[in-house]
Amino acid sequence: MGYIPRCIVGLKVVGIALLYALLAKLVLAFFSDSGNVTLVWFPAGLGMATFLLGGKRYWPGVFIGAFVGGMLVGDSWLISACIAVGNTLESWLGAWLLLGNPGFSLSLRHPRDFAWLTLTGIIAACFSALIGPMTLLLSKYLPSEALLPSMLHWWMADVFGIALVTPLILVWRNWPKDWFAPKRLLETLAFIGLSFLSGQTVFLSWFPNLLSVYGQAYWAFLFVVWAAVRFGRHGVLLLITMTAVQSLWGLQHQLGAFATAHLQSGLLNIWFYLSILASVGIPLALTLFHQQQTNQALQQSEARLSFALETIGTGAWDLDLQDYSVQRTHIHDQIFGYSHLLPQWTYHTFLGHVAPEHRDMVNAGFHHARTTHSNWDFECRIRRIDGETRWIRGSGCHQLGNSPRMTGILQDITEYKLAEEDRQLGMLFYQHCSEAMMITEADATIVSINPAFSRITGYPAEDVIGQNARILGSGRHDDTFFEAMWQTINTEGQWQGEIWNRRKNGELYVEQLSINTIFDRNGMPLRRIGLFFDITQRKLGEEQLWKQANFDPLTGIGNRRLFYDRLEQDIKKAQRGGWFVALLVVDIEHFKEINERFGYAKGDSILQEAAQRVLANVRETDLVARMDGAEFAIILTELEKIDSVERIAKLIIQKLAEPFTLEDNVAELNCRIGIAICPYDADNTEALKQAAMDAAKKCASQSYRFASPPAEL
Where is the PAS domain (predicted)? Predict the structure, then answer.
């Protein structure tokens, strides 16, 4: 319950007190013999409704109203206070019992709600009926012989008030919205007007000669049925309230059906009359209301079911197991190719559409289900009226009743069957493909692999599923490589290229990898599929062929082909970057004599060691190549200055001049080095090579020479 400001609570307390006191004054003034005891106590219903709707915070309104009501009829303040305590305790106890009862609802939509309200009123009224008369007895206002009759009348009055006024307040706090709608306005006015005229006739003697006096009192039952059928709880309670006011007014003026000289006798008659009227009208209204709600719920359920079946393209059927006739929905016949609902359909009509190869299976399943009263589930192919072959799935269950029936649904599953076939083909390909496949989450967490993956990598499924794909990393690629790869994947959704990975046994291999991304309906990455195959042997073969074509088989350094390719590339790069390229031609003198003296095998070993000595004194980015016989070429690239060229030349001459040990012999080499600088000496391959060779021929042994004097460079 939300917070209510104290000022609002205070105003409501004042209003409740005034209304309670006014009702008490009216009842005690007109319907009490002694001024305190009556058979009609409307304030009891007001007090109960106050506690039910507002809670215990409004108890001062009930107490003050009851106290003021007693004072208005001449009771002393002590008697008024005691009676007010009894009335307040009655209302609080009744509300406490009802609110703590899980079977009771304030909406009063079920007969049990009125039953609980009446039963609680019977119990709660006992407290007021005990306190009130005892107070009057102790105050000498009531003789002792009148105590028990007064308690009974007091109790009846409070029960009457609770049973009439409390439901009236609880129900009518929600105004009936459809009564005065244009389509019901005439009926509403007729009901109210005729009910009023009937009450005036019966209880206030209007049109006294219209009906026999013995039949007049039963007119209200006719109207209470009308109210229950067409206007529900609101109409019944309005009619009972109207009848109560009219009958009490007639009793007060000695008119109508309950006119009598003895007030308490008349009130007792009215009490029983209204109780019977309420016991007829309220249960009838609630029963009809409950039936209406049930029908509405059933209609809504059927509408939802129909909508659901139409949404998923499902037909419904109802088969009579005696004559095999079938009631169907429109979608049922559409599945078999009919544009409209056929006037007649039987089980044999259905069986005629089933493909011949499935007909016996379907028929046997149906008769087994019918015999054993079990569910009937089937899948089969059918031939539609237009000749198209489709797949259907059906399910049926038995219905209990006088006529044995089976109801079920039917669905076209052709697309599902085709998708299932595609899935099975895809899974067959996935399992038996010679290329490795790996399915990952968007963050590269592995969710599935195929057997080829395990065969290539050595990892079984249990070792990699749930792991990140980086478990295969070889360490041969730097962060820049993977950053570029993932940028391409995130922007384009795919990537392909060669990548080095490591098997479970630690062996490196190179694979041709293709990565593709599956996106969800919102365009977000859902899965990534990696497809790769081992190209290690191919790469090794290509590398071997490349080495054979570009490297000298004796010394392991570059050959003439690699030399020319590299020199041409370095010259172009130097021209773009503004660098220098230095070409050194190393000519070893009289090597033919070494071969003749020591033999070709030892001569080859000398060349191999000479090549390694030269290679050890240049950078990794530089190239050393064997040109011919005992002639080497050195390409020094990306030189910002040429100062280091002369130093390298001197170092190479020094290293080659060191003796070469050949078992028991020692050999010494003499060499000359020619140096040409690009772009000073030449800006193309042949010219630069020729300039370096000419410079080598012109220089002395164990020396070097620039094609152009260093001072001019």
Answer: 434-468
